[in-house]
Amino acid sequence: MEIRLKVWHGSINLEVWYHDQVALICGKRQGYLGSYLPQLQHYFGLDETTSVWLETDYGDSWPLAWHIPIGTLYDSYGELSADHQWRLRLQTGELPSTLLPLMYGPDYHKNLREYLFAQLKQACMVVNGSTKAVMQLSTHNSDQIWRAILATDWNDYWSVINQVLVPTTTKVPVKVYRGTQVSLKVVNGGNLVGNVLDEGAIVQGISLPPTMTMAEVWFHFKGVDGFIHVVDHLQPLKLLSPEPDPNNVD
């Protein structure tokens, strides 16, 4: 419980620039840039219909995905300034082709909610063998999960999600990131980290012990979407189908 709680409250200081204005945000590792974009629009006086995104603000700037956990983005591209801020820049206009398109225009909360519940359904299929637990969520419980994610409310989130995803599993859903490439796979929960992940692979900002089982990693370190998010700086990855086969277990 203590590890999960620390992971849940992990944060990164974001320094967001728009022209000569700056906003400081305590970005939650488990959170998403898409959840902060509406308040940045408001803070910088932009119309809510304006499409915006965030980029790294050093070296070769890189558009940052609105639908990938902030902690995963930082582990992939992050570089802290001297005052321990991750410096980003807000951009406006047509979204770069490298970013996931917005199904509902610049309604970032609606886009993010739809995306997260689709991912949660996918994780549920892997872990439970069925999407039934997600599909049968009441509107009240679905809203509670969403509000808890936005507010980083531990109790409200876990009181519902524990009814959706079983606490122990023999199959573990994993996303592995290398730059813009994402590999989705299902691994056996009994496999050891050292036998599944490359040395130096990072989960939630840390390099995991090679003797830890993947089921333990999933229990302690999974994201709010039910996946383990792994950043691999070592090996190039083949871009795979976004639909992992729950019967194909490594």
UniProtKB/TrEMBL annotation:
Record's function text: Involved in cytoplasm to vacuole transport (Cvt) and autophagic vesicle formation.
Domain Autophagy protein ATG5 alpha-helical bundle region: 111-165
Sequence similarity: Belongs to the ATG5 family.
GO annotation, biological process: autophagy of mitochondrion; cellular response to nitrogen starvation; piecemeal microautophagy of the nucleus
Domain of life: Eukaryota
Keywords: Autophagy, Isopeptide bond, Membrane, Transport, Ubl conjugation
InterPro entries: Atg5 (IPR007239), ATG5_HBR (IPR048940), Atg5_HR (IPR042526), ATG5_UblA (IPR048939), Atg5_UblA_dom_sf (IPR042527), ATG5_UblB (IPR048318)
Topology within the bilayer: Peripheral membrane protein
Protein name: Autophagy protein 5
Localization, UniProt: Preautophagosomal structure membrane
Autophagy protein ATG5 UblB domain span: 201-231
Molecular-function GO terms, alphabetical: Atg8-family ligase activity
Assembly and interaction partners: Conjugated with ATG12.
First-listed, main subcellular location of the protein, grouped into a coarse class: membrane
Gene Ontology CC terms: Atg12-Atg5-Atg16 complex; autophagosome; mitochondria-associated endoplasmic reticulum membrane contact site; phagophore; phagophore assembly site membrane
Ranges where the Autophagy protein ATG5 UblA domain occurs: 22-91
